[in-house]
Every structure is written in structure tokens, then in C-alpha cells.
Amino acid sequence: MNKELEHRFVTELENNQNIVHKVCSLYTNDRDSHNDLFQEITIQLWKAYPKFRGDAKFSTWMYRVALNTAITLYRKSKKKVQTQDYDSVIFKVKADEYDDTQEQQLKLMYKAVKQLGDIDKALVFLYLEDKDYAEISETLGITEVNARVKMNRVKNKLRTILNP
Question: What pLDDT band is residue 152 in, cutting at 50, 70 and 90?
Fold first, then answer.
């Protein structure tokens, strides 16, 4: 690969790396797994970059590659031993007046989202990233109507999980 292509890739990756970190957070439970998945996604992005034609925005293409990589590895690793959730073992010092209600609600939401299937999880992630249904459908390779229908079903699943 030429230096110009390599420079463009590194620049795009640096500018959009939060996408990869968010996907890693959604599909992993500890720092080591997060780092491993980040590395694997970066490798897959690098391998696929010469074929990136620019038909879609780089970030949309990056979401697609990152989610597909995470989903593929997630399916392969389902047989592995469950790991301890990193957030539950990290030591935290809280001030007396600190209200952690919002933090607790976020944790419950993430716990609920992690119970969803891999495609549903990706759909919620993109929705929470404020992606419109057109971009969600393009990223996941489904129709816009299908994305809307699936999102409604997922919202109902989450309501059931959060309010048993």
C-alpha cells in the first residue's frame, strides 16, 4: 500500500476511533477484551480500506466493519467462560452528596442492551448514536422499513427487560 493511502487511513481512524471504542464497550466486559476487539477491528478496517470506495461516509463504513467484526467474534466467543464485569470490581470513591441515579440508570440500560441479540444490540447502539433510519439501514444492510420495525420490537423487549 502506498504512503498516501496509509496516511488517509490513519487520519480517518484517529478522527473516528470513538466509534470503535463504543462498539468494543458494547460487546466486551473487561479492558483486555476491549483492547483485543479494538485491535481486531482496526486490523479488519485496514484490510478492507483499499476497497473503500467512498460511496458512504467513512464513519458509516466504519460502523459496518466494526459491528460486523464484533458480532462475528461475539458469536465465536459465546462458548468462553463468563468474565467479571470491569465496572463491578473497579474501586470507586464517592462524595457524600454525589447522586448516582443517572449512572445507575445507565448501567441498567447497558445491562438490558447486553441481553439483546447481536443485531438488536447493534441497532440500539446506532439509534443511541443519533443515527437516522437511513444510515442505520445502510450500516446494517437492511431496509429502512425493517430497521424501524426492528427498533420498535427492540424497544418493547427493553421495556420488558427493564420492567419485568
Answer: very high
